[in-house]
Amino acid sequence: KASEAKWDEGFQHLRKFADAHGNVRVPIDYEVDGFKLRDWLTNNRAKFEKLSPDRQRRLSSLPGWNDYSHNVKWEAGFRRLLDYVKENGTAAVPRPYVVEGYPLGAWVMTKRQEFKKGTLSTERRQLLQELPGWAEDAQAAKWEEGFRHLTEYVEEKGHACPPSDYGSNGYRLGAWINQQRGYFAKGILRPDRRDRLGRLPGWEWEPRNAKWEEGFRRLQQYVDQHGDAQIDAKYTTTDGYRLGAWVTQQRHKQSIGKLDPSRFARLDKVTGWKWRIGTGNWKRNQA
User: Fold this and answer.
1) Is the separation of the CB atoms in 11 and 62 below 8 Å?
2) Domain ranges, residue 5
3) Spatial separation of the C-alpha atoms in residues 285 and 277, rounded to whole Å
4) pLDDT (tens digit, 9 = 90+) per residue, 45-104?
5) Core-most of 62, 137, 218, 247, by most CB within 10 Å?
C-alpha cells in the first residue's frame, strides 16, 4: 500500500540519520530529497502508542529513540506549536490562543514555567530553543509578540513607524512602540532588542522624528495620488490625519527659521511643493 511505502520511506531516512548522528534529534527544517523527515518523526512520536507492534519495535531499535519521551501530551502540544511556527513565523503564542479546541497558549505557558523551574528535560529545552521567537518567560514572549506585529506592519506598509495610537486586531502596536522608545531613552532596552528594532526600515527612536516622518509619508502619498503638493490647510485624510495642518506647520517653521535643513531639503524636492501659497517655490536666498 502507498501508506506503508511512505512509512517505510520515512523510517529508512530516519535510520540513516540515526546511523550518521547517533540519535534521532532531527532538526526542524530537515529534509531529504524533499521528504520532510522532522514532520514524519513528530507525527510518529505523537501516535507511537497507536502504531503497530512492528513499527514500535523498529523505531525503538534506533539509537537514541528511547532517550526521547513518547509522552502523548507533550507531542500533541509540540506538534501544534510547530504548526503555529510554520504559519506565523514565531513560537510566541498568545496566552489565550486556542486551535481546534486545543489550548496551545496555555500549553506554551506551562512549558515556560517548567523551563524556568528547571523541570523540563534537556532534550525538550533544546527543541523549544530551536524555534524562532521562543521565549523562556512571559515578559519575553510579550516582547516577541509585539515585534511580530511590528514586522507584519512593515511587510504591509514598508516602514516601521505607525501612528502612536495605531492598533490592529485588538493589539495596541503604537503603545508597544512608545514603550520601547521609552526604554531606549532610559537606557534599559536590551542591546539585542535595540539592534532588531534599529534594523527595521523607517524605525525612529525619537517620537518627534517619527511624527514628522509620518507626515512626510502621507504627503508623498498625496502627491502620488494627486500629482502635486498643493494641499488646503484644512485638508484631512480619510482616516482622520490632518495633513493640511502638518503642511502648514512645515511652512510656518521655515518662515521663522526653525525647520531642520535636512527636512527643508526633502520637502523642497517634493513634486509641486511651494513654501508660500500663491508664489513660486521659495528659496533660501530670496528676501
Assistant:
1) no
2) 1-61
3) 18
4) 878 878 899 999 999 899 878 765 546 678 788 889 999 988 888 888 888 889 988 899
5) 247
| C-alpha span between 124 and 12 (Å, rounded) | 24
Taking only the tens place, the pLDDT of each residue in 169-209 is 788 999 999 999 999 989 999 998 999 999 998 888 887 78
Q: Per-residue pLDDT tens for 135-168?
A: 777 778 788 889 988 998 898 888 888 887 888 7
pLDDT at residue 67, as a whole number: 64
Question: Hey, what's the cell of 217?
Answer: 509619508
Q: Could you tell me if residue 106 is inside a domain?
A: yes
In degrees and rounded to multiples of 5, residue 131 shows phi and psi of -80, 135
Is residue 161 a part of any domain in this protein? yes
Task: Based on the fold, state whether residues 159 and 214 are members of the same structural domain.
Answer: no
- Structural contact between residues 141 and 132, judged by C-beta atoms closer than 8 angstroms: no
- How many residues are present in the chain? 287
> H or E stretch including 91?
none
Contact 87, 67 (CB under 8 A): no
For residue 217, being part of any structural domain is answered with yes
Name the strand (E) or helix (H) holding 35.
strand 35-36
| Separation in Å, CA 4 to CA 14, 45, 52, 56, 60 | 15, 17, 12, 14, 18
Tell me, yes or no, whether 218 and 192 share the same domain.
no
Domain assignment present for residue 286? The answer is no
Give me the number of domains the chain comprises.
4
The answer to whether residues 44 and 73 belong to one domain is no
Kind and range of the H or E run holding 31: strand 31-32
